[in-house]
Design brief:
The structure holds 2 protein chains of 2 kinds.
Chain A: E1 2-8, E2 11-20, H1 22-38, E3 45-49, E4 53-56, H2 58-74, E5 77-81, H3 85-94, H4 96-99, E6 101-103, H5 106-112
Parallel strand pairs in A: 2-3, 2-4, 3-5, 5-6
Antiparallel strand pairs in A: 1-2
Chain B: E1 2-9, H1 15-28, H2 37-53, E2 62-70, E3 73-80, H3 107-115, E4 118-124, E5 127-135
Antiparallel strand pairs in B: 1-2, 2-3, 3-5, 4-5
The chains are: A alpha/beta, B alpha+beta.
Chain lengths: 118, 146
């Protein structure tokens, strides 16, 4: 699976593309771990922009759950945004949309991310 | 009625071939693409369950997937000749648990049960048989062929 990254001030945007299935999960997990390790400063935020993500299975949900926990421990704000219907359905049915912050689009996610310290 | 079968060893490397098998069945039967998700997900979850929990070390049971479409009712059957294992016997995860308390495993079969109209397990001779059915709806306008 292809993953793109963007950095906006203290916010790192991660954009997975295509299918996050069992075969893609381990590689995606490594990417997320690297991003979280690199973001570990006060008021940092990680946003997973899912606008190009077509499919997620329980193997992908597991990566998001572990990432959200690791971010919480490190004091990093963690959210997902722009879920396609197929991905949103899996998030809602699993109850993950109640434990992981999900925004409708990137603009809303960025507006909710912590501001840079003055 | 349309029916297709594919048999593979229970090896994670076979997942793309199974997904392709489902996608080809889907387009040949001209089913609405947006409704493939429950079957794609169920195929991955059930197959990976056999690979990860139903294949004792050093063995690779044979997994046979069949898809059968009657009117608009699609039945997917996944059979394997591994040790007896009923994936439906596990309790569902607590979907109200907090981020830290939520168990990492056990989501797959739960999702399959949520998405399908019916899911049943049977031990048939020396094989595990998991059967999933769901009605396909033609409510949305068909896309052009291609």
């Amino acid at each position: 699976m292809n993953v793109r990254f963007e950095r906006l001030a203290l916010t790192t945007l991660v954009m997975p593309e295509g299918r996050l299935d069992f075969g893609a999960a381990a590689g995606f997990q490594r990417h997320i771990e690297e991003v979280l390790a690199g973001a570990a400063t006060a008021s940092a935020a990680v946003i997973i922009d899912c606008s190009a993500l077509d499919y997620v299975s329980s193997a992908g949900l597991r990566v998001f759950l572990l990432a959200a926990r690791a971010a919480q421990r490190a004091g990093i704000s963690f959210a997902l945004c722009a879920l396609k219907p197929a991905v949103r359905e899996v998030f809602e049915l699993s109850g993950f949309s109640r434990i992981i912050c999900v925004h409708t689009d990137r603009a809303t996610a960025l507006a909710s991310a912590p501001r840079e310290p003055a | 009625m349309t029916e297709q079968r594919l048999a593979v060893p229970s090896d994670a490397e076979q997942l793309p071939a199974l997904t392709r098998f489902l996608q080809e069945f889907w387009s040949a039967a001209r089913l609405p693409p947006a409704q493939a998700l429950p079957f794609e997900l169920a195929l991955e979850e059930v197959f990976m369950n056999v690979v990860q929990h139903g294949s004792p070390a050093g063995t690779a049971p044979r997994v046979e997937v069949s898809l059968s479409l009657r009117d608009l009712k699609l039945t997917m059957t996944v059979e394997d000749d591994g040790p007896e294992f009923d994936p439906l016997a596990a309790p569902p995860p607590d979907v109200t648990a907090s981020l830290t308390a939520r168990p990492v495993g056990g989501q797959g079969v739960f999702l399959v049960r949520q998405m399908m109209d019916a899911v049943s397990y049977q031990r048939v001779g020396a094989r595990n048989q998991l059967r999933m059915t769901k009605e396909i709806t033609r409510s949305s306008r068909n896309r052009s062929r291609g």
